[in-house]
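User: quick one
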Amino acid sequence: MFLTNLTWPAVASLNRDIPVVFPVAALEQHGRHMPVFTDSLLTDELIRRVESRVGDRVLFAPLTWLGNSHHHMDFPGTLSAEPRVYIDLLNGLLENFIAHGFKRLVIINGHGGNDVPGRQSVFETRQKHRDRKDLLLLFATYWNLGAEPWKRDPTIQQRVMGHACEWETSMVLRIRPELVGDLTKTVDVPFGNAFDPAVRGWTMPDRSEPGHVGDPRGATAEKGEVLFSCFADEVVKLLARVGAWDGKSWEG
Ligand SMILES: [Zn+2]
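Assistant: Done. Structure below.
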């Protein structure tokens, strides 16, 4: 169920063990062929599909579209919160619902740059409520939940998420094809290994002139449907685990 459709008495009457989802995404450049609102469009669609399957068992807050996208700031149009501001924004959302008495709070993320501050947010908020044993604070990026879409469609080439890549371009083609530019004009931008196993601080111009990473030329709406379906399955599974948690153990 969507929080935006409820009255406050309806929220007040909810079981406080219901999982509450905060979807988060971004508004940032997505190459020359895709709109800046790509991550938010895709995350909204994913959440819409998940909500239609879990119904009243999960409460969904509206999408927070402002993300941490400073590594894209060289490209006009990008709107980004400073990392510290973004962590505090997420902490604030969690604190609001802790104040309302809810205990199982899940941030579902659809933008790579939110990953580090998102993890930091659930960590910080947990430390602030360290005497509570009944809090479950989770951060999850939807494409990192174990989906293997290439097993359902062997024509899918990529194995991990890129940026405005085969995967994201396919998903936008599935829901908003009129927003996708001429893919024959795009090029393959290799992922590279970024000094693995070290973690490199980077900006997008370090990696890509057009702004995308990956090869969008193989994108199709059919692949997009498979990707949405696989990612929704994993989010539904995660939320079922959250709902089934016994309220105190480390792993439920
Ligand atoms: Zn994206």
